[in-house]
């Protein structure tokens, strides 16, 4: 009995160390029902108005031929039986996306017949679905004032990316936003499966992976984390199976190539950097190091502040996991009751989940060597949230938003616009760093019952 109590005491101390700070009192706004929230009817009206705008864009704004024909050429090869990624090519070059892209765009080709106009209509529907998901995230986090939701529909560039360019970034980000909405509702396993599906469309979604892993470690025990990761990995294996069986090296090398060097001319950011420096390995490594330093700094001083820092949090999770295994293999007669009572319930707040994910992605955007115009969709929908997470005055928030949109609408980009974009990103990042971190846990139950 004494050994069992010692295990219980040590594990309780380990968990208490990751929840040092007491949660702040809940605000009245967070207790409002959905029927009392004025943002919901406003979001519905905004969605209908944007649907009308998308219809007008499709009807009256000329389509821009960029990647759709190339996508269809790559899909034709796949549907024709080609399974070697080296032989799947289009007008813009070889196929460089994972297998999920082929399945999704094969379905698009079947629905649209490969024609541009029905594809635009289809992407218009995708745009509205994506916006509805994003609005749901914003309404549930209840961070922005109602009028600021309009910012989500004010991007000329994003409308163009969806219905005038038909990029696969649109599909990937729609799935990512759906995954984020599931994570907000503590649906971690299903959220990871949808997240993996988004990665299978385009690998930029992996920018969310580091903060997502940290959130999983907070919300689940190590067994739950491993099961969720296994499910995500299984999605990648199943989708890539036809290529992994026949030409595995070509598939992995092409679909998951992390070393691609983008053309300097098309970059929206770092255009002020000389081309020879831009394409150099040293510049890429310096950005990667900066990326890692920023992620670790935010994880230690912001995302894990209430747990005593990143190292303390990871150590606590290690101790907790170690004690769980010790209890599992213990011969103590109270092993079963200890095991059942040692299940930790840590429900993360919606705000903490969204903030951690969006800030982690934004750090990746800041440190990306090259951002093409379609890459704006990777973080545009997070901008209002990130700006309202800062303590900046509302006027400055709006100016920063408009400044970023202005930079993305300059074509072609130049050294001045790219330098301005970097400065705006740094100002936003500083505001996020200076903002007080929210308490991460909505509910926390002790790992142990009181000794009788």
TrEMBL record:
Highest taxon above the source species: Eukaryota
Protein name as it appears in the record: Uncharacterized protein
Top-level taxonomy: Eukaryota, Viridiplantae, Streptophyta, Embryophyta, Tracheophyta
């Amino acid at each position: 009995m004494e050994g069992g109590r010692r295990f219980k005491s040590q594990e309780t101390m380990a968990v208490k160390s990751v929840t040092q700070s007491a949660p702040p009192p809940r605000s009245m706004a967070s207790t409002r029902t959905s029927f009392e929230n004025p943002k919901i009817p406003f979001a519905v009206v905004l969605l209908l108005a944007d649907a009308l705008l998308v219809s007008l864009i499709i009807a009256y704004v000329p389509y821009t031929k960029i990647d759709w024909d190339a996508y269809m050429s790559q899909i034709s090869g796949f549907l024709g039986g080609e399974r070697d990624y080296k032989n799947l090519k289009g007008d813009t070059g070889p196929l460089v996306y994972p297998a999920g892209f082929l399945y999704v765009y094969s379905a698009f080709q079947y629905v649209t017949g490969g024609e541009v106009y029905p594809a635009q209509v289809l992407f218009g529907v995708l745009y509205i679905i994506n916006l509805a998901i994003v609005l749901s995230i914003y309404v549930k986090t209840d961070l922005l004032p109602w009028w600021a939701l309009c910012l989500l529909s004010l991007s000329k560039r994003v409308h163009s990316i969806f219905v005038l360019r038909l990029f696969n970034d649109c599909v990937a980000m729609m799935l990512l936003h759906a995954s984020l909405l599931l994570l907000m509702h503590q649906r971690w396993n299903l959220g990871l499966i949808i997240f993996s599906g988004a990665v299978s469309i385009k690998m930029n979604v992996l920018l969310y992976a580091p903060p997502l892993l940290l959130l999983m470690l907070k919300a689940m025990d190590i067994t739950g984390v491993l099961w969720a990761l296994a499910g995500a990995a299984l999605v990648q294996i199943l989708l890539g199976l036809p290529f992994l069986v026949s030409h595995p090296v070509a598939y992995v090398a092409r679909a998951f190539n992390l070393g691609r060097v983008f053309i300097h001319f098309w970059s929206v950011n770092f255009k002020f950097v000389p081309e020879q420096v831009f394409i150099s390995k040293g510049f890429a490594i310096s950005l990667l190091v900066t990326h890692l330093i920023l992620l670790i700094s935010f994880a230690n001083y912001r995302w894990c502040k209430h747990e005593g820092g990143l190292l303390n949090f990871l150590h606590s999770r290690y101790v907790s996991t170690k004690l769980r295994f010790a209890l599992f293999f213990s011969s103590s007669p109270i092993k079963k009751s200890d095991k059942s009572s040692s299940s930790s319930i840590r429900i993360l707040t919606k705000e903490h989940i969204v903030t951690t994910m969006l800030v982690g992605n934004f750090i990746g955007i800041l440190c990306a060597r090259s951002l093409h115009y379609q890459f704006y969709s990777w973080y545009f929908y997070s901008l209002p949230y990130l700006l309202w997470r800062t303590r900046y005055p509302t006027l400055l928030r709006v100016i920063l938003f408009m400044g970023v949109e202005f930079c993305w609408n300059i074509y072609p980009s130049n050294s001045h616009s790219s330098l301005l974009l970097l400065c705006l990103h740094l100002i936003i990042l500083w505001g996020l760093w200076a903002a007080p971190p929210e308490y991460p846990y909505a509910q926390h139950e002790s790992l142990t019952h009181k000794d009788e």
